[in-house]
């Protein structure tokens, strides 16, 4: 096996329109394609992140609630590399997104912070 990179990350949302607005308008991701899968009563929106990676946003009629404890087993959070965390945090706050205080990684001395998507998925911004 020769893994090259992460191809995509799939996120299931409870309210498609709210999550679509969050990922496109608030985070600024670019829609690549949107399809309605009639057999699943489900939307799928492919999103571009800076021309490199892809997030797939899914809707389903009645998805089970997500375990939001960040220490629960499974995917812990989604992290984005960013150049200016102070500017990004201010932009999020201007859009009424609750953002944790900026912290410093004790090993790298880099700034980072967390906020959540509309379903409580933890999202990290990490300044590089």
Automatic annotation (TrEMBL):
<keyword id="KW-0175">Coiled coil</keyword>
<dbReference type="InterPro" id="IPR004360">
    <property type="entry name" value="Glyas_Fos-R_dOase_dom"/>
</dbReference>
<dbReference type="Pfam" id="PF00903">
    <property type="entry name" value="Glyoxalase"/>
</dbReference>
<feature type="coiled-coil region">
    <location>
        <begin position="78"/>
        <end position="105"/>
    </location>
</feature>
<dbReference type="InterPro" id="IPR037523">
    <property type="entry name" value="VOC_core"/>
</dbReference>
<dbReference type="InterPro" id="IPR029068">
    <property type="entry name" value="Glyas_Bleomycin-R_OHBP_Dase"/>
</dbReference>
<protein>
    <submittedName>
        <fullName>VOC family protein</fullName>
    </submittedName>
</protein>
<feature type="domain" description="VOC">
    <location>
        <begin position="5"/>
        <end position="128"/>
    </location>
</feature>
<keyword id="KW-0479">Metal-binding</keyword>
<dbReference type="InterPro" id="IPR037478">
    <property type="entry name" value="YwkD-like_dom"/>
</dbReference>
<dbReference type="InterPro" id="IPR051332">
    <property type="entry name" value="Fosfomycin_Res_Enzymes"/>
</dbReference>
